[in-house]
Write a structure and sequence with these properties.
single chain, about 325 residues, alpha/beta, ornithine cyclodeaminase, domain 1, Rossmann fold, seven-stranded parallel beta sheet, six-stranded mixed beta sheet, 13 strands
């Protein structure tokens, strides 16, 4: 048997293979799939202060692993903070099917997870959308919320005016109304949709979102990282609804853990999608305050991205 050459998708090809609405549907399908297995990810500290992530996941057809490095200060070197690949194998034959650009997958699947959570949990999707943090995730979340929710107005807050202005220009290129705001906390009362995508090295948000707001807190993905003030997180827990992306958040949701919130008692996005008793019981006890969705990351999301890319690229796994 002749082995077909592995298709290695460039960042542009990877992005094209992962349209946000389709990717959100794949994420929902994955959360309903009992064959999905996701071992704990390996995070290896690196000598320079960064981390090396090994993130495997499998289902009945595919086996994937994302291999990426995260170097927080790479901007000073003119390099991206996340680099690496997602390698996709056929789970039956063991053949390598394709290699996806890791940073592109990370950016798009993270934004699509926020989109899926917003589709399921937000009470007001009209916008404006407030994006706090104007890096790669800020860009991808604007694209996802525009494509999947129909958001047409965006406000951007960032410590860097140049970065904020660049994201505003990107919004304009998408046909959206957008402007930079100097104070994210002052903008919260005007925005029913909020996404925080900062570097999470310090608290950036110290005010309460509006009562019907949906918040996707993305930046902090370890216990030590934080974007939202602890007192605000406790108030959100008392007055609103807290949902995490997966059970990995039990030890990674820095914002909530630093607020001394029992993350293990919170529902995950899979509970919301499948309407488990854990979700319905929790939801029935909640007030009418904001929904706070804490996203930390999970290799299952990368598996959903691989499914989406294979559909786009016409590369079949055994059993198709």
């Amino acid at each position: 048997m002749t082995t077909q050459p592995t298709k290695h998708l460039s960042p542009t090809q990877t992005a094209r293979a992962l349209p946000y609405p389709s990717l959100a549907r794949q994420l929902e399908a994955l959360l309903r799939d009992p064959t999905v297995t996701v071992p704990a990810r390996l995070v290896q500290p690196l000598a320079g202060g960064g981390s090396f992530f090994v993130m495997p996941a499998t289902d009945a057809r595919l086996a994937i692993s994302k291999l990426i490095t995260f170097i927080p200060d790479n901007a000073t070197r003119g390099l991206p903070s996340i680099q690496g690949d997602v390698v996709v194998f056929d789970a039956i034959t063991g053949q390598r099917l394709c290699i996806l650009d890791g940073p592109t997958v990370t950016a798009r699947r993270t934004a699509a997870v926020s989109l899926l959570a917003a589709q399921k949990l937000s009470r007001n999707t009209d916008g404006p959308l407030l994006v706090v943090g104007a890096g790669v995730q800020g860009h991808s979340h604007v694209e996802a919320f525009a494509a999947g929710l129909g958001v047409r107005e965006v406000r951007v807050a960032s410590r860097s005016a140049a970065s904020a202005d660049a994201l505003v220009r990107h919004c304009h290129s998408l046909g959206l109304r957008a402007r930079r705001v100097e104070d994210a906390n002052a903008a919260l009362p005007d925005c029913p949709l909020v996404v925080s995508t900062t570097s999470a090295q310090a608290v950036a948000l110290r005010a309460m979102p509006r009562p019907e707001a949906f918040v996707a807190a993305v930046g902090a993905f370890t216990r030590r990282m934080v974007e939202w003030d602890a007192a605000i997180c406790r108030r959100l827990g008392a007055e609103g609804t807290l949902v995490v992306d997966t059970r990995d958040a039990d030890h990674e949701a820095g914002d909530l853990l630093q607020a001394d919130i029992d993350v293990t008692a919170l529902p995950a996005l899979g509970d919301v999608v499948t309407q488990t008793s854990a979700w319905t019981t929790y939801a029935a006890s909640r007030g009418t305050g904001p929904v706070f969705f804490k996203s930390c990351g999970w290799a299952g999301w990368d598996l959903a991205a691989a499914r989406c890319a294979l559909e786009w690229g016409g590369l079949g796994a055994a059993g198709d």
